[in-house]
């Protein structure tokens, strides 16, 4: 028995004003190819299908095509829960009508207690989906004194465990922040000040826990309590994370193995550091020059139109930092010493604009002008 | 063979800042009761399910509950098309997955040519859904020189008719403005200047045409080309329209009868005309004092806080007009004669506020003050 665990698709996300929809489409294509060549019993999405509760129409269409091909053509059931970015009621429309066609959207507490049951070669496997919820919702629905995310998840897990059947294996889909797990910059906090943390211990009664919310693939506490990580990188801080999905294998005893399957984005998201000239030189032969880039220019002098120059070789530079132009604290230089004079700035500008140095006469002329102006 | 034809639900609509969702819910309840006691082969909604392309969550939930009860509990198939108020792609999510559960959302040209086929006691009946579309969309999709709504519908009807099968009866769902039909104030124009009109003659090859868009129930051209009208009144101009649904009966020969079935809104929408005192007196014993009202005050003098006074007996006065305070053109009186002086206005105000007339001394005092002020 095998299934694929994914999460945090964020379909429709923009990154520095660039739509990632084409990249997301290419990655979904990889998932479809995988499913076509390596059949599994189910595909699981642990929340944040879309990037916001009212997603753009194009994102809905992309998801619709994916569902048609996976549930329809490949006959692989999809089981999903809304995350904190999704609108649960909006996503849940028609879920009752879709489930017989293999699309299982578990979007409320009633769905949570009605697991999707699959008959597999290792017997009955039940998938419980705990839609994303904050403590307030849980307190209100269950009329229990629940104040924190941790207490909410404890209560919800206990409520689910009461419905376990002795002959079935149990998988949980859950969108939350497990205490001690590693954050990335692209997650939207669930609450302020760390009160969103949930102990992994509530999850130990399950055979496998398919987590969503954190964008880095990781396990927490037990081998069978895992984040698959997001579909692709959604911040430069994730440049070294390997994105993909988790192939989970179960045997008669329950959880067997979890294997990371790479998903490769058409554009990598990475950070390049160096001086302008060396970056441009390297860009001319860089086979991955279309990647989404954050460039950190280390040059110490002012540069005219650096973005334009960089984009001539790296068209998708999305963000530019100039730490070389800032006063380095570690350098312990006095501000006075570092401050660049008007003449220095003009010299940099001239050099950039004319591609040649100021002659002595020119330097004298500009110095005189600056002097006159400052004395006025 | 019978089916119910409805249209223009506009779930989530606001009327003069009042949400109509509770009224809509009560009316949907009447549809469910009807279906439970008088089984039909299908329920048809000819567009404008929601009031806008991104409907409020509560409207989606209401629709979801309705679908669950009708398709699920009562096992009556629902066949619907998006109207000009709906977002076709948004509404169409998961339609592939829903159809086997009896919810048929026909939201694009491919769906249009894939009719919903029902086996009934009079043989095969095929329901074609033509989602709302403007000429630009049709021109683009079919690569045909289509400039007007009329040409677009002619092309679409011809395209559908080519797929007819000789042994089936054909029903069309269509959201458009049939030439010569009667408008109401609550429809959003499809285009400016009458170019949105479509000839009913394109529709004659069908056995029945379930139209949506116009809010008044009516037939156009043939007995079998009909608007069911909207779910409820959405403007005061519709106060005398009987809202409801159309029960269509087919026999071996095709269309048999169309019968209007009333749907009763909890709050009527009506206009009351008269002087304030008589309206208030009547309101005290009016059994339908909670209706949504437009009040036309015919009083000729200024009135203090008329809305407050009216709402003491008619809590849902939503709009107030004061034609009695306007200059009647037909009266042919000179503006000078009609203009009310400051003293006249004060006299009205005093009378309203104190519930007594000005004494002669008081009238003299105010006249003197006004005179002094006007001479300053």
UniProtKB/TrEMBL annotation, chains A, B:
GO molecular function: 3'-5' exonuclease activity; endonuclease activity
GO biological process per UniProt: DNA recombination; DNA replication
Gene3D superfamilies recorded: 3.60.21.10
Keyword Zinc applies: no
InterPro entries documented for this protein: Calcineurin-like_PHP, DNA_Repair-Maintenance_Comp, Metallo-depent_PP-like, Mre11_N, SbcD, SbcD_C
Any single Pfam family the record assigns to this protein: SbcD_C
Domain Calcineurin-like phosphoesterase: 1-217
Keyword list, A-Z: DNA recombination, DNA replication, Endonuclease, Exonuclease, Hydrolase, Nuclease
Top-level taxon of the source organism: Bacteria
Domain Nuclease SbcCD subunit D C-terminal: 266-350
Subunit structure comment from the entry: Heterodimer of SbcC and SbcD.
Family, as annotated: Belongs to the SbcD family.
Role description: SbcCD cleaves DNA hairpin structures. These structures can inhibit DNA replication and are intermediates in certain DNA recombination reactions. The complex acts as a 3'->5' double strand exonuclease that can open hairpins. It also has a 5' single-strand endonuclease activity.
Name of the protein in its database record: Nuclease SbcCD subunit D
Organism: Vibrio galatheae
């Amino acid at each position: 028995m095998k299934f694929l665990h994914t999460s945090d698709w964020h379909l429709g996300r923009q990154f520095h004003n660039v739509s990632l929809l084409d990249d997301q489409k290419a990655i979904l294509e990889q998932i479809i190819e995988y499913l076509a060549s390596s059949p599994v019993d189910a595909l699981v999405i642990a929340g944040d299908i879309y990037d916001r509760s009212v997603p753009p129409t194009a994102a809905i269409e992309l998801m619709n095509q994916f569902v048609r091909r996976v549930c329809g053509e490949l006959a692989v059931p999809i089981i999903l829960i809304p995350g904190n970015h999704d609108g649960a009621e909006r996503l849940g429309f028609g879920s009752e009508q879709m489930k017989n066609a293999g699309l299982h959207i578990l979007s409320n507490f009633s769905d949570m207690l009605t697991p999707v049951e699959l008959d597999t070669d290792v017997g009955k496997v039940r998938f419980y989906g705990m839609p994303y919820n904050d403590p307030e919702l849980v307190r209100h629905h269950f009329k229990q004194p629940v104040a924190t995310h941790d207490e909410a998840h404890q209560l919800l897990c206990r409520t689910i465990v009461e419905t376990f059947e002795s002959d079935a294996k149990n998988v949980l889909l859950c969108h939350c922040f497990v205490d001690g797990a590693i954050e990335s910059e692209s997650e939207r906090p669930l609450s302020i000040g760390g009160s969103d943390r949930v102990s992994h211990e509530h999850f130990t009664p399950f055979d496998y826990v398919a987590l969503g919310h954190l964008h880095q693939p990781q396990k927490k506490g037990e081998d069978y309590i895992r984040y698959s990580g997001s579909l692709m990188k959604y911040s430069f801080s994730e440049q070294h994370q390997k994105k993909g999905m988790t192939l989970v294998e179960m045997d008669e005893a329950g959880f067997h193995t979890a294997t990371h399957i790479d998903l490769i984005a058409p554009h990598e998201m990475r950070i390049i550091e160096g001086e302008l000239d060396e970056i441009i030189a390297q860009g001319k032969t860089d086979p991955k020059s279309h990647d989404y880039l954050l460039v950190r220019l280390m040059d110490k002098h002012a540069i005219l139109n650096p973005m334009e120059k960089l984009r001539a070789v790296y068209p998708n530079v999305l963000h530019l930092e100039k730490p070389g132009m800032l006063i380095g604290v570690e350098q312990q230089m006095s501000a006075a010493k570092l401050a660049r004079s008007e003449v220095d700035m003009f010299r940099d500008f001239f050099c950039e604009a004319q591609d040649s140095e100021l002659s002595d006469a020119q330097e004298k002329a500009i110095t005189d002008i600056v002097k006159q102006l400052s004395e006025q």
